[in-house]
Design goal:
Subcellular location: Cell membrane
Organism: Variovorax boronicumulans
Protein name: DHA1 family inner membrane transport protein
Radius of gyration: 20 Å
Main location: membrane
Order of helices and strands: HHHHHHHHHHHHHHHHHH
Largest sheet: none
Shape: globular
Strand content: under 5%
Pfam family, one: MFS_1
Number of strands: 0
């Protein structure tokens, strides 16, 4: 794998850290800014919605720029946004700073996915995407627990100062190692790029991403109160357990990439089934420390095993003009799932059966995503029968 992929991974690490680190700081933020835990949880939803808006807008706005220039500009936005988070005097300003930071997220991963697949042979595309997304798993494995520990020791603002420094370092690495792609094709007319949104399979791919992944954040958004209030662990025990989640993400990310290299659609279906099973099992595992740690690790594996297959699925169905846009929109779809999951989890806690029921609610959302994936596969099979798609070959690989 080219060293440029490692540079993309470094950028993904910085962005992933700021996205996920707030999960380990909910109690500190809610106490310091005098808001409820569910209000602090909305900082996750606000970030995710910012990604959903920023992904298509910035992808279209930067479509005529070289991809390396775009990546560097996005990393600069990310760094300045985290600086604003560290300096935010109140909840409202923190929310605004989180949204500003999030604007870079979707386009970075969307453009980065296209760059990554262009650096390797066609049969290694899913693995290339998985390697770039390893930055997210490393962020969860190292950045989030370290951020949670730092926030516990020195206050939550110190965590955002640290993430700002990560942004500066990631900018330098991207500038040094990501090549300027020679012979980049001129962008197609905007009308042709937007036409990708009229493809039913692209829309189904985006929908399965939103709903399939939403279940993860019904639970993960509230992992700190789950572990402290339901399992009965101390706040200081949360950071080490987040390391287990991060380790699971690393395993699931590589596993999902390898499965998708072989059969993308089968990988989508299999990983969504596994995720629904793990989420449904939370009810029976969260009550004791040992089983809770096992659950957290399995949740990490199952959640990120879905990422490379669903991202590659959308890229395949959006081939040609509009691939950058579709790729960024699928990153936005992951984050819409994050926002939806955080909101549904908050409603379940405040107006429903409470923390104990989050696993069942999460599994139901993921099963809806699985139903959409089955619908998409049925359309593929119908197209194969009519000759519109090749039967299980290298180009279809369903």
């Amino acid at each position: 794998m080219p060293i440029a992929l490692l540079a993309l991974t470094a950028g993904a690490f910085g962005i992933g850290t700021t996205e996920f680190v707030i999960m380990g700081l909910l109690l500190q933020v809610s106490t310091d800014l005098h808001v409820s835990i569910t209000a602090a949880g909305l900082l996750i939803s606000g970030y995710a919605l910012g990604v959903a808006v920023g992904a298509p807008v910035l992808t279209i706005a930067t479509r005529k720029l070289p991809r390396k220039t775009v990546l560097l500009a996005l990393m600069a936005i990310f760094t300045l946004g985290n600086l604003a988070c560290a300096l935010a005097p109140n909840y409202e300003m923190l929310m605004a700073a989180r949204v500003i930071t999030s604007l870079a997220h979707g386009t970075f991963f969307g453009v980065g996915s296209v760059v990554a697949t262009g650096l390797v042979a066609p049969e290694r595309r899913a693995s290339a995407i998985a390697i770039m997304f390893t930055g997210l798993t490393a962020a969860t494995l190292l950045g989030v627990p370290a951020g949670a520990w730092l926030g516990l020791q020195l206050g939550w603002r110190s965590t955002f100062w640290a993430v700002t420094l990560i942004g500066v370092l990631a900018f330098v690495v991207l500038a040094a190692f990501v090549p300027r792609m020679k012979g980049e094709a001129k962008p197609a007319p905007l009308r042709e790029e937007l036409a990708v949104l009229a493809r039913p399979q692209v829309l189904l791919g985006l929908a399965m991403t939103v709903l399939g992944f939403a279940g993860v954040f019904v639970v993960y958004t509230y992992i700190q109160p789950l572990l402290t209030q339901v399992t009965g662990l101390s706040e200081s025990a949360v950071s080490p357990i987040l390391l287990v989640f991060g380790g699971g993400l690393a395993v699931g990310n590589i596993l999902g990439g390898k499965l998708a290299d072989r059969a993308p659609m089968a990988a989508v279906l299999g990983t969504l089934v596994a995720l629904a099973v793990v989420l449904g099992a939370m009810q029976f595992t969260i009550g004791t420390p040992f089983t809770a740690v096992v659950f957290v690790g399995l949740l990490g594996v199952a959640s990120f095993a879905t990422v490379a297959p669903m991202q590659l699925r959308v890229l395949e169905k959006a081939s040609g003009a509009g691939q950058n846009l579709a790729s960024s929109l699928n990153i936005a779809a992951f984050n819409l799932g994050n926002a939806l999951g955080a909101w549904v989890g908050g409603v379940t806690i405040d107006h429903g059966p409470g923390l104990h029921a989050l696993g069942w609610v999460a599994a139901l959302l993921t099963l809806v995503g699985l139903a959409i994936a089955l619908w998409s596969r049925a359309l593929d099979r119908r197209a194969q029968k009519t000759g519109q798609l090749p039967a299980d070959g290298a180009s279809a690989r369903t």
